[in-house]
Write a structure and sequence with these properties.
By secondary structure, this protein is an alpha+beta fold. The protein contains 3 helices and 4 strands.
Length: about 90
Amino acid sequence: MKPLGFYIRFINPLYGKPFEEAYSTAKPTSGTGFLLKLDKNGTYAFNMVIPVFKGNKEPDSLGLKTAQLAGFIQGVIKPSEIIKKQLISLFR
């Protein structure tokens, strides 16, 4: 398993597990929560990984999904920021 030019099992387990799961299931996945070291407020976040496929639609079978995998979109999600922005928009 070597998409994107790196070996998933040898990268940081915190980030690598969602990549490995997204690759083997061809579905969006997320990791467990973790504390961002640079965040002075002690805000927790989690890693989200979404597989991207060649062509305009998701392939029908898992075999085709892994064969047509073009890469991943990866991001760090901070739930507190999402909730805060929604609450602010409700009370404007």
